Amino acid sequence: MDELESSTWKIRLVARRKLVLLLAFVIGLGLIAAVFLFNGKILAKTPLIAAISETWRDVFDLPQVKKPAAEISLEDLRKREVNLAEQTTDTGKTSPASGVSSPKVAVSSGASQLSNQDKTIMGNATKPESAEIVPKTEVPIEQVASDAHECDFNAGGEPRHTVLLNEIAWMGAKDRTTAEWMELRNNSGKDISLSGWRILSQDGKFSVRLSGENLFATAGFYLLERSSDDAVSGVVADEIYAGTLSNKGMWLKLLDANCLFIDEINASAGWGSFGGNNSTKQTLERNIYDFGWHISAAVGGTPKAQNSEFVAVPIPPPTQNSLPPPEASSGSVTAAQVLISEILYDAVGSDTGKEFVELYNPTQSDIDVSGWLLKKDGTSLASIGSKTEDQTIIKTGGFFLIGLNGYNGIPAADVVRSSSLPNTSATVTLYNAGGDIIDSLSYNNSVAEGEGYARQPDDSYIASPPSPRNSADN
What we know:
Blueprint: H1 2-38, H2 47-59, H3 74-90, E1 106-107, H4 116-122, E2 137-138, H5 145-148, E3 163-169, E4 181-186, E5 198-201, E6 207-209, E7 221-226, E8 239-241, E9 251-255, E10 261-266, E11 282-286, E12 293-299, E13 339-344, E14 356-360, E15 367-368, E16 373-376, E17 379-383, E18 393-394, E19 399-403, E20 415-416, E21 425-431, E22 437-444, E23 452-455, E24 461-464
């Protein structure tokens, strides 16, 4: 009985061993099939099976599978890209010069935005077939400093005076004290845009930003009215602003779109030293040919028009015809048909482009001045009509402007010549085409720089800031 049991146990053991060998054989055949059918790519993910697969490929001399040093999920890359973009937006650097947050945002996809760690792991790994790399592109960031921060009122430097604060109705109008307005004048010699320009007060209580929708024409006027377009009756405003002009005085500055200092009026101690009248509602006007101020001669001012003339305090006039008329033998002095009405010979700073002699026709007829001569101490200054661009007609009650020393001021001269006037003394004489002396004026250096002589109704002259008029000003 014992022998039978022992024999049966041995038979079972042998059978089990054979079964194990059979299973191992079947598994081996399966691995061989996997190598050939799947090229080892799927099963090779298990280390043990990968080792067996490589052994069989060695036995059958098959090429080894090249695998990457590391694999990174495309989904992980996309998540990382979003995180990087959010961090860039939140931590954009601020320009120290302008105070503008100006991050440079890079836009890409796939593996184009990897951390340094990711790049190190990937090394020379084969790019995944589904991961298309899009070239990195920069999103343009608009760099307009003036649009993002306020200008510094205390910025230094000298005013450029390309545009002038030309007239200020700080007192309002007789019917409404709130009918305040300001006027700018284009002194740059070209059309410009006022978009982004500012008018600021020193105390920070007044701030106007100009839209400048249309170009500001050279020598033109730009009218700003408070609250609505009825502050100035009958004149259309270029800009409506909010804010109040204090009757106690203000320090105002005009700054351009880049916060550059253009012009100012420092009336912080009161408007009285500059001009304007709260009782009569006469405005504060800029002098026409210098940067001084005066009270307007017109109640309500001169909105979008040339300012009124500065009323000067009379001083002893120059001696008219006190010197012998130059070349008097060429003709006798006739009844004054045309008058020398104004002269400027010593302008502020350089005289180049600023000297002039203005003529006036007091008669009831237009006068043709072709062939007429203007001389200084016998030397020719201008022969009127000798150039094709010269104007030659002075209308009745009209003016005629002879620009000297390359005159390029406002208004345009009817005749422009390069000859100049001395700043010391001279006799200026006007001759008609027949050589007759029409009018003459002698002057000496008895006026301040920037002032000339203006003729008065009684034929005397007073020192006055220049206010030239041409043949179009009638």
